[in-house]
Amino acid sequence: MISNKLPSARLLAVALLPLSVSPAQAAPLSQQEQLDQSRAQEAARQERLQFPKQKAELYLGLDVGAVYGADLYNGHVLAGAALGVRGTVNDISYDVFAAASIEKPEGFHTPDATCGFSLGWRF
Fold first, then answer.
1. 117 contacts 95 by C-beta, under 8 angstroms
2. Which helix (H) or strand (E) holds 6?
3. 10-residue stretch averages of pLDDT, the chain, 123 residues long
4. CA distance 95 to 84
5. Which of 18, 32, 68, 84 is most deeply buried (CB count within 10 A of its CB)?
6. pTM
7. How far apart are CA 17 and CA 11, in angstroms?
């Protein structure tokens, strides 16, 4: 364990060294040193751009049914559609959706569209 920490400390000291040198005293870098510096900067940039491992899927839902038993709505068709995204990030699952009615009886007093979300945590 100790040997793993020492190279990191040395690397940090080497990385901080150019900051303490004034520009007038700095020697020009060779092509190899410039290439190494460019590669190190690119690797650091890529590390900052990494996102957590996630699995997500886009889904489209369609639901059709009919009302039976209530005389007022008997035999009337109900239909709706939903569009959403669901997935997981680490131990958190999510579902975000928007839905709209396509067909409903005139007496149904419900919104034409709705949206919502669900969050879950696995522990």
1. yes
2. helix 2-20
3. 40 39 58 77 62 76 80 73 90 93 81 92 88
4. 7
5. 84
6. 0.49
7. 10
